[in-house]
Amino acid sequence: MFISNCIEILNKYGSSLMLGVQTTLIVALTGTIFGLVLGLIVGGFRAVKLDFTASPAARFCKGFFDVLANVYITIFRGTPMMVQAVFIYYALLDIIHWDKLPAAIFVISINTGAYMAEIIRSGIQAVDPGQSEAARSLGMSNAQTMFSIVIPQAVKNAFPAISNEFVVNIKDSSVLMIISITELMFQAKSIAGSTFHFTETYFIEAAIYLILTSVASLILNLIEKRMNSTVRLSIPSSVTDTVTVDYMSKKEKSDD
Asked: For FRET with 229, which of 4, 75, 188, 249 sits at 20 to 30 Å CA-CA?
């Protein structure tokens, strides 16, 4: 009976479930990409350390930004996404009159951005400071050093955590049904309400989520292995040589 009901649901409502899968993947993938961009901006600025030559105005701006970033990260990491979705959607509905799909992408993007900011910040801090010092000694600006040397390595080092955020977003997008977006959870709830086969419907939904997260994890693991084996940073050869010489000199001193 259980299996026959599952087959009947798939035959009758398979298109609705696939529509839910499509919406779930769109929201999760788009939200992760936008969240990564936001995390790069917030985490990058938080990781920047001003030296003694910085002006008082620059120090004030840096301190003000750090306060705002801390508030943003604390709020969006410390409150449930479901609460964020309801509050943001209805708070801005009368102002911008947006549709549910853009609202869902916006919510998951800023929520993911809070986590990505901490991931990127830790990834940047894990990069050897000697590489930045070597780049600046060759006349590269802070921006050139950050974007050409530090951030590519930080993203590579943090890629497992970034990948995990995408997998988490596939599952967490289910809470966005609270604003009636037609993702997989919304479709399953509608089907269960129509057929009264709650166990079978949610079993199918769970299986679909498991397939989506498993396939996503497999693909991301392959990408990570590819990055580890073939990644080549766009660093000038002079910088690479300087970093290598600096590393070797430090190693020789430690050996002595």
From this structure: 249
Cα(34)–Cα(54) distance, integer angstroms: 31
The residue whose two tokens read 């899968």 is 21
Q: Which two tokens stand for residue 39?
A: 């995390």
Structure tokens at 128: 């050897």
Phi-psi region of 195 (alpha: psi -120 to 50; beta: other; left: phi over 0): alpha
C-alpha–C-alpha distance, residues 225 and 229, integer Å: 6
- Asked whether the predicted pLDDT for residue 247 surpasses 60, the reply is no
Q: Residue 29: is its pLDDT beyond 50?
A: yes
pTM value is 0.83
- Locate tokens 């950050």: which residue? 146
Residue 199 burial class via C-beta count within 10 angstroms: exposed 0-12, middle 13-18, buried 19 and up: exposed
Closest CA to 35 of 194, 156, 169: 169
For residue 174, how many other CB atoms are within 10 A of its CB?
A: 20
The answer to whether the CB of 165 falls within 8 A of the CB of 119 is: yes
DSSP line for 117-134: HHHHHHHHHTS-HHHHHH
Tell me which H or E stretch contains 256.
none
Identify the CATH number of the domain in which residue 89 sits. Answer: 1.10.3720.10
